[in-house]
Prior knowledge:
The complex is a heterotrimer of chains A (91), B (393) and C (271).
Chain A: H1 3-16, H2 22-26, H3 46-60, H4 77-89
Helix pairs in contact in A: 1-4
Chain B: E1 4-13, E2 16-17, H1 19-27, E3 34-35, E4 48-50, H2 64-80, H3 84-88, E5 91-96, H4 101-114, H5 122-126, H6 132-141, E6 147-150, H7 156-169, E7 175-182, H8 186-194, E8 215-216, E9 218-226, H9 227-232, E10 239-248, H10 261-274, E11 281-285, H11 292-306, E12 312-314, H12 317-320, H13 327-341, E13 343-344, E14 367-368, E15 373-380, E16 384-391
Helix pairs in contact in B: 2-6, 7-13, 10-11
Chain C: E1 2-10, E2 13-14, H1 23-27, E3 32-33, H2 50-66, E4 78-84, H3 89-102, H4 108-111, H5 119-128, E5 134-138, H6 141-157, E6 162-169, H7 175-180, E7 189-190, E8 192-199, E9 206-209, H8 215-224, H9 231-242, E10 249-253, E11 256-261
Parallel strand pairs in C: 3-7, 4-5, 4-6
Antiparallel strand pairs in C: 1-2, 1-8, 6-8, 9-11, 10-11
Amino acid sequence: xxxxxxxxxxxxxxxxxxKFEPRRVADVGFETAxxxxxxxxxxxxxxDFIELGIAIEERFGIVIDESQDLAEHFASFGTLCRFxxxxxxxx
Amino acid sequence: MTQIVVTGLGAVSPxxxxxxxxxxxxxxxTCAIRPVTLIEADGFRCRIAAEVPGxxxxxxxxxxxxxxxxxxxxxxxxxxxxxxxxRREMAxxxxxxxxxxxxxxxxxxALKRGGRRLRAPQLSxxxxxxxxxxxxxxxxxxxxxxxxxxxxxxxxxxxxxxIAADLVADGVVPAALAGGADTLTRLCFMGFNALRLLDPDPxxxxxxxxxxxxxxxxxxxxxxxxxxxxxxxGARVYAELAGYGMTxxxxxxxxxxxxxxGMVRAMQAALARARVEPGAVGYANAxxxxxxxxxxxxxxxxxxxFGDGGLLVSSTKSMIGHTMAAAGSLEAVATxxxxxxxxxxxxxxxxxxxxxxxxxxxxxAAREVSLECAISNSFGFGGQNVTLLxxxx
Amino acid sequence: MRxxxxxxxxxxxxxxxxxxxxxxxxxxxxSLIPLAAxxxxxxxxxRATRECLFGVTAVYALLREAGxxxxxxxxxxxxxxxxxxxxxxxSNRAFIEAAASAGRESGGALYFxxxxxxxxxxxxxxxxGLRGPYVILIGGAAxxxxxxxxxxxxxxxxxCARALVLAVETFAECADLYARGRWLVEWPLVEAAACALLLxxxxxxxxxxxxxxxxxxxxxRRRVGETLACAPLIGLALACAAxxxxxxxxxxxxxxxxxxxxxxxxxxxxR
Lengths: 91, 393, 271
């Protein structure tokens, strides 16, 4: 999968699983931040991150190791796409 | 101001039926968290919980929750020595969440998976909702006064005592039966699994390496009475419910306020109502769920109210898990018995104390100490905080 | 206590003006009159369930009715007492159904917190910054009578400076289940959300058992239909609009009928 495809898949999860309105995620890019409180972010809180983690595991068939600090991977759409791409390649 | 005293205790816990079994288990630091048997747990991250062992009191035609509630309520009323005539005017305040959901879910899943029309068992539909416990207790035990079902998530059991104390203090009734009941349900087990809040192993509140909570089930009730009424009938007094505080965080549907602001205000309100200085409180039965967030924030809130002094803090949930709507009332019973026996029950599985927790959390073994006052904290989803403050009579 | 205002939404529309003269006739063959989706949206309410939105909307309706801004109720001096008999049915059903078909943890994290009835008042406290005492009662109209009595006692004691009594009832998602429970309703089920703002002063209240329905209870059922826990608050709105004083509210739930009436005696037990 190309990086752009990962981004599109994530956008779909934001709409189907996190209940975002489609137009809210239409123009997000790799640089758009995820966590609430960060400027220009889509404003995810702890509850959203849990659901997003589960959604990613189910969609991409990967396992996210929760014992490690995931904050840097869940910082923006770009970091998250890279994180998923690496695990899809080397399961 | 009317003095409110505790004159009866009843419990059905993962240690079995009765207050004695409960206190023996809690005092000895025994862990009742085991593999789940009531529901299908295959495939979940966490497959353990603290279930109430059989046989349960009462008719098998009632829901599990109703049977546990009825058993604990009956024990508390008998313990208080209240006759039919006195029971009739008592208030009944029940904290509940799951109701008869365990049976309701079984029926619904069978219906869905069987793909054919199943006849709804009358039992499960009649008793599925949380007010069923109050209806069953009220009608079976003859309580005809005010009757309320309180649902403030995980603080329901504690809130019920606070509401009941209000009714007695305001002279609406001379005595009230208050407590909570909850069974394990698929909804709760799946939900907390989905939130990644459950430890695959028995929970370790206040341990540096804690990984989440464990779920439990049970029921507990207390009789709260106007002290003058209790004296007049020569009742045994366990403790005084000297104060309580109820506050909301107005912050988030699941996360507590990061500074524990609402928790602090609940504890301060309980102290103010009881006119007790923080130094007089020797023991805090913590909400202590074992999640990273709760324990750290609660410890911070306790420190803000009580300072770094000699307050002993322990978590009953380390032994019986989080019993949801029953938790606040089961923990109130443990707090009252700690005062009665001058024994602080321990926190189980606490091997590496969290350096961020500034208190002695009584690892492993109970501590005999002289106590004047003790508090019990309960915090629910949505930032609904309750603190109960008990004082030796 | 004094009633400073009642905000009201029903399947018939906002406020008393929207109510028909006779609910059964107005409903015709419909057994359920749903509430229209409230005009709340955006990021803040992305996850909130329908019943949460109605709770928040009812408080906004109250503020409009009473001519107050949000700041008038924010803070630690406002108590919130929430009552519902079935307002959490939809979220519980949705969660159980998703689990029964998809299994396991699918979709659970976002929706599980909303299966607790307390999610509705929690969203209200967050929206309006209510940080005072709270009570959540489960039950129909009789529970709302208890709630009003509780508010009166809290105000008299000074536990709070003002109290909101809020009720929300939604039925649409569980219409088929309600249809099984004929014991519950003879009238059209009408979704509703109502919130009363109560202040200290005025007459004291006494909640106690009642033998029969008060004219207000009958008027609410006749005009609105079955609204379970919302009914006494709608009755309060009708009484205020008509300038009735004193009024007598009654409410029934599962064979128990309670009344709220009269003046508090200055001393001694009230029952």
